[in-house]
Write a structure and sequence with these properties.
about 230 residues, Spore Coat Polysaccharide Biosynthesis Protein SpsA, Chain A, 8 helices
Length: about 230
């Protein structure tokens, strides 16, 4: 089965070359790489045009910054694979873990797979208590409105059968895409699995972008799209 890897990217000049190298060398036989530059302002765009564009299958350039959700939507419009995975460009998530993430779908057991940072025995960087606590609270609230028992709703690593993700109408432009997708795959009665992953989180000084305002927006999105089942 062919894996489509959608990479939303904004101001990741320092990390993007290494990330693309890791994705290219990831242990999946058939894959396509779709990179979406969300109008970066730090030189990332020039880097992509001069060094990266010819190494991936497709690059989409936004003319204005629209947010992670909008970048993912643009990427999804171009996928041709049987399975889609979302990959952040910041080196927090490890592309060598693609095989175990797609396995439940390849084996016909799942429609959607979440890569959980909070289960399993893989390595995790230890830092940012309040970020961890916020993730746990948002996951609990999401679970209450979807009747799921996820451990990590906010994870970047979400994997889908292509027909499933293309069947959703995604509206959120920023990080609200995470609870929106979760609510909508729950409403669609998709078979959802979780797989434990490693996580190499970075601090805000190292470029982490999600903040407390995104947390408040996530609460709004959970209440808007969620429904007790």
């Amino acid at each position: 089965m062919k894996l489509s890897i959608v990479i939303p990217c904004y101001n990741e000049k320092e990390h993007l070359p290494e990330l693309i190298s890791r994705v290219i060398s990831s242990p999946v036989d058939e894959k396509e790489i779709i990179l979406v530059d969300d109008c970066s302002t730090d030189g990332t765009t020039d880097l992509i045009r001069t060094r990266i564009e010819t190494t991936v299958d497709r690059v989409i350039y936004h003319s204005k910054n629209m947010g992670k959700g909008a970048a993912i939507r643009s990427g999804l419009d171009c996928v041709t694979g049987d399975i889609v995975i979302i990959q952040d460009a910041d080196l927090e998530y490890d592309p060598t873990e693609y095989p175990k993430l797609i396995a439940p779908i390849v084996e016909g057991r799942a429609d959607v797979v979440f890569g959980s940072r909070f289960m399993g025995g893989d390595p995790h960087r230890v830092h940012l208590f309040w970020h961890y606590a916020g993730n746990r609270i948002l996951t609990l609230l999401s679970n209450m409105f979807t009747n799921l028992n996820l451990t990590d709703m906010e994870t970047c690593y979400k994997v889908f059968r292509t027909d499933v993700i293309k069947g959703l109408t995604i509206q959120q432009n920023r990080f609200g895409i995470e609870p929106e997708i979760t609510a909508k795959v729950a409403k669609a009665n998709c078979r959802i699995y979780e797989v434990g992953i490693s996580y190499h989180g970075r601090s805000y000084g190292e470029g982490k972008k999600i903040g407390w305002k995104d947390g408040l927006k996530a609460v709004y999105v959970i209440l808007r799209y969620g429904t007790f089942r």
